[in-house]
Amino acid sequence: MNRYWSDIVEKLTPYTPGEQPKVNNLIKLNTNENPYGPSPAVLAAINAESNENLRLYPDPNSDKVKQSIANYYNIHTEQVFVGNGSDEILAHTFHALLKHKLPILFPDITYSFYPVYCGLYEIDYQTIPLNNDFQINVEDYAVPNGGIIFPNPNAPTGCALPLDEIETLLIKTQDSVVVVDEAYVDFGGESAVSLIQNYPNLLVIQTVSKSRSLAGLRVGYAMGQTGLIEALERVKNSFNSYPLDRLAIAGAVTAFSDVDYFEQTRNAVIQSRKTLADALQGLNFEVLPSTANFLFVRHHEHAAGDLAKKLRERNIIVRHFNQPRIENFLRITVGTEDQCKALINALQQILR
Ligand SMILES: Cc1ncc(COP(=O)(O)O)c(C=O)c1O
Asked: Which of 228, 232, 330, 338 is most buried as measured by Cβ atoms within 10 A of its Cβ?
């Protein structure tokens, strides 16, 4: 508290991101980054762009990035919005499309940034409990609302909602915007991008942070009909004209053209997810079905907080959310084969 603060700042409860340790010798399975580096073509493009043109502002519209994404998904360039990571796009979305008279809806167990944006923009919200299997039941969302948002696959559970259920929800809630946050969709979920031409109330948000190994570049994008995109552009152009810098533009464009590398690394993650899930089940962990690059697991005889602490003592970091319903779970990012083996070895020692 400080006498110079605005009222809203005083009331905020900011988001706490997962730890980014300052030392290098840790196996970092706590923030769902890709264990593989970015495509070599992306690094070359960023290097090439690191030249004297950096004295100039970048293209405020990031047109080349929008074109690359539009080509990749076979949609129109005007149906794409880009921003400084999908977190920034989420912020603009709450501001531009989810601030209405009625409360917005999102699951009780979900990305914990959503209530933070509600605090920042003074938006009422109501949480809808996941069912006992930690799945979203779309029928529960058919109540009056100012908008709906959820990740698919959900975070931190990793569980996905089939496309036909998203379509059912869109049909039932035509008066409000439905935002599908697809940060992890490339690891096995079904993208709702194919539905945007039919549903003017659907906004799909994705990122290059996870499946394209570029969390450090900060590029996110949203796809939807032009009415929704225009709302985001209006907020963006009232906030920051240049959310993507020259290096981010060069890297993001190439990330969408190097499809081979993308396929190769995401398939490696999917493969390791299966091996890791089997090994954890072998250690008596319950593993929720995941189509993301992480697993959400619990052990019925060991407290998750203790396990996280003991892993940390062995230089492995995973994420524990001390929050009702999920305090006994750990969220574990799928690492390389070697990292997964090290995790399993450490757990074998701890559980002995
Ligand atoms: C569900 C979900 N959405 C969005 C994000 C933000 O991703 P970024 O801002 O790196 O694009 C994350 C990051 O962990 C996430 O888990």
From this structure: 330
